[in-house]
Design a protein that fits this description.
globular; mainly alpha
Length: 421
Amino acid sequence: MRVSDVWAGLRTHKADAWMALLALGIALSPAHAKIAGAAWLLVCIAGIVAYFRLPRATASDLPGAASQAWGAACAVCAALATVVWLYWPIRPDTLHAEFRLLLCAVATHQLVMRAPDPEKWRGIIFPATALACVIGLVMVIAVPNRFMLPSNAIPWAVSMAFLLCVLLPPVLGGDISAAQRKWYFLAIAAGLAAIFLSQSRGAFGILLWATWLAAAKWKKSHANFNLRKAAAVSLVGFSLLSSSALLPSDPLRLRAGWNEVVMAKHDGNYDSSMGARVYLWTLAWQSIQESPWIGIGGSERLKRIKIAGAELPVAERERFKAVRSVGHVHNQYLHSAMDGGLVGLASILAVLAGLGAAAYFLRRTDPVASRQVQGVLFIHATASLTNVNLAHNYYAIMLSLSVALILLGAGARSGSLTQRL
C-alpha cells in the first residue's frame, strides 16, 4: 500500500481521519509542546472510542502481551508515585508524568486489541516520524538559542532521539523500499543533526545506539563480519566526534562540560551546568542515606537545594548560584530516591521494566518492533542519568507517544514494504 493510497482512503473511510490527524500531530510535535499534547490526547480519546465501539480482535500475532506489559508497568509506576505523593504532600503537578504514561498506555492497548492494522499504521507513522525529524532540525536552526526550544532543550532533544528509535530499525531492517530509503536516511541525518545542534549532551546516547544497531545489522548480513574492525571504525568515529571539543567554538559543549566538572571537584565552584550536577548528586546521595525507604519528600528536597551554600561567607555563596536556581537534582534515579526512597525509585524502574518486557514479548513476533522498544529503553535509561526528564510534561508525552507508535505498528511484517509505502 502506497502512502498516497492511505491518504486517498481517508476520503472514503472517515473513521480513519483521526489517524491522519495523529500523523500530523506527530510530524509537528517538535515544533510545540501543545501540538504533542494534542496528539497524546487524540490517542487517549481513540482508545476510549475503540473500547466502547469496536469488538476485541482474536489474531494471534497481535502485540497484545507487549502492550499489556507496558500498561501494567505504567500502572505500577503511577501507583507507587501516588504512595509517595500521599506520604509526602507536595505540589500536585508531580503526578502528571506518571498518569500521562498510564492513560496513553491503556488507550494504546485498547487500540492494539480492537483496531489492529499494523500495515496501515506503518504507512502513516513512518512518513510522519521522518517529517518530524526534519521539522526538529528546522526548529533548532530557527530559534535564537537552545533555551527557546519547546519545553526544555534536554527533554526536547531526548524526545527527538525517541523518534529516531521509531525510525531507525525499520529503515535498516528493510521495511522501507530501496527507492525511498535514501530519503529516510536524510530524515534520520536531520534528526541526529537537530540533537547535536541542541547541544543537549544527555541525548548524545542516540549515536551509541545507532552505531550498535548498524553494527548488528551489518553482522547479520555479512558472514565474514570482523568484530575488531567494526570496533576500530566505531572508535575512530567517536574520536572524531570527541575532537569537536578541541575546536575553539566547542560546538557540542564537551570541553565545557569537562572543565565544569574539574572546577567543581578541585575548586569547589558549582556555578555551572555540570558543576551544579556534581553538587546535587552528592546532596541527593547523602539525603537518600538519611531515609532510604521513603525518602525525605519533595518539599525538603527543594529546601535543601535552595539553601545550598547559605552557611558560607557572602563571597563564596556565588559558587552555588547555579545550584539554587534549579528544583531537581538532574538525575531521575537519585531524584526519585531522594523524594520517595526505594518506593520512589521502584516507580521509575517500573517504566524501564515495562519497556524491557515489551521488547522481550516482541522479539519473536516482530523483531523490528522489539529493536525499536530497545532503543527507547536505552535512550530513556541513559538520558535519565543527567536530568529529571519526567519533570517535563512534554517528555512524558513524547515517551508515551513513541511507545504507542511502535506497538500500533507492530506485527504482520512480510518482507519489504516496497509495495506498501
